[in-house]
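User: Okay, second chain of the day. Same drill as before: sequence in, structure tokens out.
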Amino acid sequence: MRGRDLVAIGVALAVLSGCAPEVASPTAASSTTIIDTSAIEPTKLPPSRWKPKHPLAPVQMSEDEKLSRRKADLDNQAKSYGLTPWEYPALVRWIVPEQIASVMVPCLKQRGFIVEGSADGRGYSGQTGSQDEAFGRAEVECSAMYSVDPRLMGEPSQDQKSLIYDYWVEFLVPCLKKHGINPTIPSREVFVSTPTPMAEYPHDDEKVVKECPYGAPSQALLGEL
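Assistant: Same drill. Structure tokens below.
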């Protein structure tokens, strides 16, 4: 992810987006909490073809509330670099996590920092060296211009967790099987109660990450797909 893992938008987005999750460890598995994925066939469908069979209702939030949350998030991001919050650049547009690399990489490069986007487009990495404070200011300013939609922040709803599970079963597991990976996942009830990361997911394998994105489509989570 990007500098200091600042795209790790809490526990929720860790599960939603595939950032290095910091969630509770799964409880001891039993035959009732783990489902058998052996019967799931590999898929050749690209991730763009997956759509929820049971779309969610659109997530509502006023523009004023979105801007207020944006300001609070930017202040926290600035403070994490030891910077005093300042008057940030105006918002150019809201983005979803899948668009982070496409806007942040060129924005940071324009400010003299060499970074590379992640395979799934949800983050980036690069060396800041002794320019940590300068990088922090640049990153905050770029984040201000291209802010992640606040509706994707915070604790996901039960319906969103269930949709993530559908994505795993209907697309992610079959896609991983195509690459010879046979993941173990809990039952829907256990996952919705306590979302836990998929231990077998190869976050460092760029080819797999690109073909089998860990996170469910943000538009589906927003009820817009």
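Residues 108 and 138 are 7 Å apart (CA to CA).

User: Thanks, on to the next one.
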